[in-house]
Amino acid sequence: MVDNLPPALLTPMVELGARGDLRRFAAVVDVRSRAFSSDLEEAIRLLADAGHRPRVVYVHARDDVLIRRYESVRREHPLQGSGRLIDGIEAERELLTGIAGESDLWVDTSDLNVHQLRDTLEAAFVEDGAPPEVVATVLSFGFKYGLPLDADLVVDARFLPNPHWVPELRSRTGQDTAVRDYVLGQDHAAEFIDGYMRVLDLLLPGYRREGKRYLTLAVGCTGGKHRSVAIAEEFARRLNALGVPTTPRHRDLGRE
User: Fold this and answer.
1) Where would I find the RapZ C-terminal domain in this sequence (predicted)?
2) Could you give the residue ranges of the DSSP H alpha helices within 103-188?
3) Is residue 113 scored above 60 in pLDDT?
4) pTM exceeds cut of 0.85
């Protein structure tokens, strides 16, 4: 792995590695390299034309998280210039727009610790025997905290009764058996899950044909504590049973 590699050196580094029988190569490329966007897009195209399989991971976080991280290490943003820290962050987002849209995998690190980040990347890239055709993440979230930016698909569980208004369930979460049974036992909950599984049955073969290996299905409710958690766990269970390696994650659990 190489950090802060100028995009123009990606192809030479991959070719050198291939000569030494280095079959997998990771490079961290960011806006510290000037002419970043155009150079990186051209480097990715050259790698693909040469018969390599470049995969682009877009790693990002919310503005408030980025500001807190920069302030904790007392560093300026490389694009900040004479402006504010947020000006540098906004300039970077604009510069990354094209690359972000073409990325194979989005990873929102806003609510991940280093161990969760490692697990996310390992699930996507570590091969144990034959690589999985599609690796899925089912992410629960609360709409009141905003939509997850790295979601490929978003489903809304707010049509189901909220366990928050059941006194004996309010303090529990969708990972508790009582809450899970309450949510999944509601009218139309089973039909909702069954129906969306049929949608996934249609989508997954298309993703495979298009070479998409990573799927993030986001399930939302009001606060991300009860309904979305229970349903995300159920989606993950069913996808794993179908042979799709799936990890449930709960972005906003414990946030209230």
Assistant:
1) 137-253
2) 114-125, 177-184
3) yes
4) no
